[in-house]
Design brief:
Strand order of the largest sheet: 1-2-3-4
CATH topology: Diaminopimelate Epimerase, Chain A, domain 1
Helix content: 40-55%
Strand content: 5-15%
Order of helices and strands: HHEHEHEEEEHHH
Number of strands: 6
Structural class: alpha/beta
Largest sheet: 4 strands, mixed
Distance between the termini: 72 Å
Radius of gyration: 25 Å
Length: about 240
């Protein structure tokens, strides 16, 4: 899985320039500022290669991040394929910061095209200004011009997002909360009930996060004990004292 993820990230890096140029061409007619030359995409495209949610660099409270992660994973387990990018500031967009001033649907198509080598399902983008959704976005070349197109109909899901209020503010917490609300609403339209597993807080229980640490400690203790036993068995032995 790690090898596949690394390969996906490499493909994204090679495709990013073409996607940025195609998006820049599409926005030029609207007098959008052109992207930086030879840009290397955006952070979300790298993160979403190996996990389902991209969070802002300015961290939201851990409880909100756990909730959104759980909702998205629950949706994917139940067949509603979705990846989510939560964008709070220009910094979260890397080399395409000007897209923060565009409708979120523009960045959703851009991000979907960057992920298209391995992900053709829904890509949800949540910004302080609202929501964007794309599915099946990919680069096509016609007449020597590259552009981003979608081959999936997202109209009903987009209608759900349009009925939602925008985030209540521009902080990371505000945008992450709005993303959780959007994922719940989209899943409900498809009659999917999302379940977020709570970490075990009982006295005898531990979280999965503690398991690797416990295994590592046990391994270190075992190796140390084995090394001490080996040193004791191979220690130089004194010859017995001579008898008269």
């Amino acid at each position: 899985m790690r090898a596949a993820s690394a390969g996906a990230v490499g493909v994204i890096g090679r495709r990013s320039t073409a996607v940025v140029l195609a998006l820049g061409a599409a926005l030029a007619a609207a007098s959008a500022p052109p992207p930086a030359a030879l840009a290397d995409g955006d952070p979300a495209s790298d993160v979403l290669a190996y996990q389902p949610v991209f969070f802002p660099y300015s961290p939201a409270p851990a409880a909100l991040r756990r909730e959104l992660n759980g909702l998205v994973r629950s949706a994917n387990r139940q067949g509603y394929g979705i990846r989510v990018a939560v964008i709070q500031s220009r910094r979260d967009l890397g080399s395409v910061p000007f897209l923060l001033a565009k409708p979120p649907s523009v960045y959703a198509r851009f991000l979907g095209a960057e992920l298209s080598s391995f992900w053709r399902q829904r890509v949800l983008v949540v910004m302080p200004s609202g929501y964007g959704l794309a599915q099946g976005a990919h680069l096509v070349k016609r007449g020597g011009v590259e552009r981003i197109e979608e081959n999936a109909r997202t109209g009903p899901d987009v209608a759900v997002l349009r009925r939602l209020p925008p985030p209540g503010g521009s902080t990371s917490a505000d945008v992450v909360k709005a993303a959780a609300r959007a994922v719940r609403a989209l899943a409900a339209r498809h009659d999917i009930t999302l379940v977020v597993a709570r970490p075990d807080s009982s006295p005898g229980g531990g979280s999965n996060r503690d398991t690797p640490l416990a295994a590592a400690v046990a391994a270190v203790v075992g190796l140390t004990a084995g090394l001490l036993w080996f040193l004791w068995r191979t220690r130089p032995r004194r010859p017995p004292p001579a008898t008269g």
